[in-house]
Design a protein that fits this description.
It is a single chain. By secondary structure, this protein is an alpha/beta fold. Helices cover 49% and strands 12% of the residues. The chain folds into 3 domains: 91 residues, no CATH class; 179 residues, 2-Layer Sandwich (Nucleotidyltransferase, domain 5); 111 residues, no CATH class. Strands 1, 4, 5, 6, 7 and 8 form a 6-stranded mixed beta sheet that branches. The protein has a two-stranded antiparallel ribbon with strand order 2-3.
């Protein structure tokens, strides 16, 4: 006779249940709780005034958020639901159920403090002998903003709408003046219609001011670049050499018709996406340790390209605690290449390995096994980097870039499912990306510890 395990859902527990018995040893949720309980949360705890009803302890809320981001549960509503449905979330919450408003408010209020925990986790990885800085691979990836690109408004279209609204306001005022002589259409509330258009005009004015401010910043940068180009051409003329081509045109003043601002998240930008599409997005940056695949630097920029992200990464890496070690090689693809970036790495004592151009994936065997060329005698950092990238050791070191930082982005976006920010504004999304990086590090540390 076939025997089955008895499934009895009605008999009560003979003894009170313990949440400690709900998960197997070595579970990720247990590791998260142990780590968060060991972090210094005094900056968050001291912010509580002790008034009102009892609050959930910050260690519980931090662990819930970090575990949620590490397992693909980013929404505060989904985390609240998981505290009922998921054994792991129940364990972390100690069988309590913080509501979604509490979780969302906590994340928004203590975002700077949550960012500060990122370095504490790296120090913990150092204590666990899982991290020692050496080679760091830097790259960027586009993440959708919490805004639709259809809510973006171009400067040309903005002026058109503004003109239309002002005309409609004048028409409504004229209709109100003539109301005593002729009846208004049924249901027409002239003051309400005027107020609605005045409100939209104010939003248009705010959007126009933002576009004009961005145009002034761009114009200043373009004017500086134009002055540098003209200075180089003038230097060639003084040296008796004729510059190639025509002199560059000075930058145009004022906003362009195509300049845009998003009415939902004004800090986000239209950026190219795979498949020839364009999305309202941010450019998220990450520096990954090549030996452990732990994220050691992170940031978010509004710039579509990566060329200006070397110096911010160097500043962040240089600000890490000395116990973590020092960065020796910085690996990056051709999108980061510029002579200024090479010089910046050299000035910070970091060896750059940044591809000047796209190289062939499969070198001929004669080139792969050829002896290294002699080291250049000149002290130019760019010449030294070009030589090193052609050596066997340099190719092997640079080859680690694609197998470290790109898999991290791939897992975060396609396994965990983090493809869009929940928060809005550059400051907030920078903090949220740091939270994602910390969650990834804890998940990765759990794997490395088991190995």
């Amino acid at each position: 006779m076939t025997r089955f395990v008895n499934a009895d859902r009605r008999t009560g527990y003979l003894l009170p249940p313990s949440v400690d018995e709900w998960l197997p040893e070595g579970h990720l949720a247990r590791f998260m709780v142990e780590v968060v309980d060991g972090l210094d949360l005094s900056a968050i705890v001291n912010a509580y005034g002790g008034r009102g009803s009892d609050a959930h302890h910050p260690s519980v809320l931090v662990a819930l958020l970090v575990y949620g981001y590490a397992t693909g549960t980013f929404s505060s509503r989904k985390i609240e639901r998981a505290s009922y449905d998921s054994v792991a979330f129940r364990y972390i919450a100690a069988n309590t159920h913080p509501d979604h408003d509490t979780l969302a408010t906590f994340r928004r209020r203590f975002l700077p403090e949550l960012e500060g925990l990122f370095v504490q986790v790296l120090l913990l990885a150092r204590e666990m002998k899982l991290l020692k800085l050496g080679n760091v691979a830097l790259d960027g990836t586009k993440l959708k903003a919490n805004a639709s690109r259809h809510k973006a408004l171009s400067y040309k279209h903005l002026l058109k709408i503004e003109k239309q609204l002002r005309r409609e306001v004048q028409e409504l005022l004229a209709a109100a003046e003539a109301a005593d002589r002729s009846a208004l259409p049924d249901g027409l509330d002239v003051p309400a219609e005027i107020a609605r258009r005045e409100e939209r005009l104010q939003r248009m004015a705010d959007a126009k001011a933002k576009i004009q401010a961005r145009a002034r910043e761009r114009e200043e940068a373009e004017r500086q670049a134009h002055a540098e180009k003209m200075a180089r051409r003038e230097a060639l003329r003084k040296a008796g050499r004729k510059p190639r081509g025509k002199d560059p045109e000075p930058p145009a003043e004022g906003p362009r018709d195509s300049d845009q601002v998003n009415l939902t998240d004004e800090d986000s930008r239209i950026m190219p996406a795979p498949g020839g599409r364009f999305e309202q997005a941010y450019n998220a940056q990450a520096g990954v340790d090549t030996d452990t695949m732990l994220i050691v630097s992170s940031g978010v920029t509004q710039q579509t390209g990566d060329q200006r992200q070397i110096e911010p990464a160097l500043r962040e890496l240089g600000g890490l605690p000395a116990e973590l070690g020092t960065v020796q090689d910085l690996l990056a693809d051709t999108g980061f290449f510029s002579k200024d970036n090479i010089s910046a790495c050299a000035a910070n004592g970091v060896e750059p390995l940044i591809a000047p151009r796209r190289d062939a994936h499969h070198l001929p065997w004669s080139e792969r096994f050829a002896p290294d060329a002699p080291k250049p005698e000149e002290a130019d950092p760019l010449a030294h980097m070009r030589w090193r990238l052609k050596t066997r050791a340099g190719r092997a070191a640079y080859g680690k870039r694609k197998s470290t930082v790109e898999p991290v982005f791939g897992i975060i976006k396609h396994v965990l499912g983090f493809r869009q920010f929940s928060l809005r504004g550059l400051h907030n999304v920078t903090g949220e990306w740091r939270l994602v990086a910390m969650a990834w590090n804890l998940k990765r540390m759990h794997v490395l510890q088991g190995a």
